[in-house]
Amino acid sequence: MRIYDIIKKKRDNYELSKAEIDFFIEKYCEGEVTDYQASALLMAIYLNKMNKQETAYLTEAMMNSGDVIDLSGIKGVKVDKHSTGGVGDKTTIALAPLVAACGAPVAKMSGRGLGHTGGTLDKLEAIPGFCIEMQADKFIESVNKHNIAVCGQTASIAVADKKMYALRDVTATVDNISLIAASIMCKKLASGANAILLDVKTGDGAFMKTLDDSFDLAKAMVDIGSEMNRETIGIITDMDEPLGFAVGNSLEIIEAIETLKGNGPKDFVVLCETLGAYMLVLSKTVNSFDEGIQRIRESIKSGDALDKLRVFIENQGGDKKIVDDYSLLPKASKIVEIKASKSGFISKIEAEEVGVSAMILGAGRETKEDELDLSAGIVLNKKVGDYVEKGDTLAFMHFNKEEKLQQAKERLVDAYEIVKEKVEPKRLVYGVVTKDEIKKF
């Protein structure tokens, strides 16, 4: 078998076999297939696309290019949740203890943030002492004992994906549904979960900007999960404006805790309830979505979810006192208010611009080498649909270094649109994708 023939076959728009895809991934990881040959094949895939079967073969080959985690030592049905990323997406921080408090095992491996989207691990490291590195036996023991553990992915998971993504990033071959789906799902499948819930973001602050593309990506990933015998559900959710009010690591930890105390922003609460209910269904903890919603709400009302968060933090070396004392978290030395330049209704808050503004303040990374300021970020004071008078506070910017403040401020101001007529906020959940059907709301 020759890589030349495989490139030519895909260039001419023929379907690749499992053997050909396995050969490409294996030889590319071993260095026998060069970057320029891999680039040629990726461009052929980008232009001619892959069908459902090819995408499943590619995902499986990428999954098997590194370690595949064995979570069979954990009792019950393990459900993993993946978000395609967004601004203010602190969902795992609240959702993991919520679902664990309801009796479902949460064994989650998360990543770091890059660019305007935040990473779960970065947020957790805002908690003093919290450790995101765990040995396999400690990870399994934690889930069996407490129903919850969240750690970083090992470098040896899905080795091919790391090499391929770096190449796609510089060869204009990122925006392909099959390649995106395979990249996400190979890591989820290698992480050992029995079932997978996908939170596919759509809109300005998301990777997928349109509803059609978001549904297509969800369907591709659900098909992969089903092909690999993992029950998989995709939920399409809005990211046209930031999720909740807080954007920035320490600030998002506080908002997640407030949500477990029953004081969360409406959109964030709805998202946690929705995702949590589906996770409980997938884990066989409840029999229906409605029962799942009820259980999630009860765990907040009873305080069980908040107690589980304390246990989670303490078990991974963190200071659980932060749940009741936010002064123990990193705190910015300066806060600046952003005021409305005119009266009217907020018609848009461009999520990506808010995310970039927070990144400039230090809350995110432009490159992998950038050091985060865990206290920096933005707290919105108004959301889409709210009325503001000229001079009202739209948001608060939290920062320590002033050299980039003006640049960040300009991005944040430009993110807002204010109009005379009242605007209704967009819906949060646009639909659900399962192996059997696509429901659009």
UniProtKB/TrEMBL annotation:
Its EC number is 2.4.2.2. Residues 345-419 form the Pyrimidine nucleoside phosphorylase C-terminal domain. SUPFAM superfamilies: Nucleoside phosphorylase/phosphoribosyltransferase catalytic domain (SSF52418), Nucleoside phosphorylase/phosphoribosyltransferase N-terminal domain (SSF47648), Pyrimidine nucleoside phosphorylase C-terminal domain (SSF54680). Keywords: Glycosyltransferase, Transferase. It catalyses: uridine + phosphate = alpha-D-ribose 1-phosphate + uracil; thymidine + phosphate = 2-deoxy-alpha-D-ribose 1-phosphate + thymine; 2'-deoxyuridine + phosphate = 2-deoxy-alpha-D-ribose 1-phosphate + uracil. InterPro entries: Glycosyl_Trfase_fam3, Glycosyl_Trfase_fam3_N_dom, Glycosyl_Trfase_fam3_N_dom_sf, Nuc_phospho_transferase, PYNP-like_C_sf, PYNP_C, Pyrmidine_PPas_bac/euk, Pyrmidine_PPase_CS. It is an enzyme of class 2 (transferase). One of its GO terms (molecular function) is pyrimidine-nucleoside phosphorylase activity. SMART domains: PYNP_C (SM00941). Homodimer. Catalyzes phosphorolysis of the pyrimidine nucleosides uridine, thymidine and 2'-deoxyuridine with the formation of the corresponding pyrimidine base and ribose-1-phosphate. Belongs to the thymidine/pyrimidine-nucleoside phosphorylase family. This is Pyrimidine-nucleoside phosphorylase. The lineage of its organism: Bacteria, Bacillati, Bacillota, Clostridia, Peptostreptococcales.
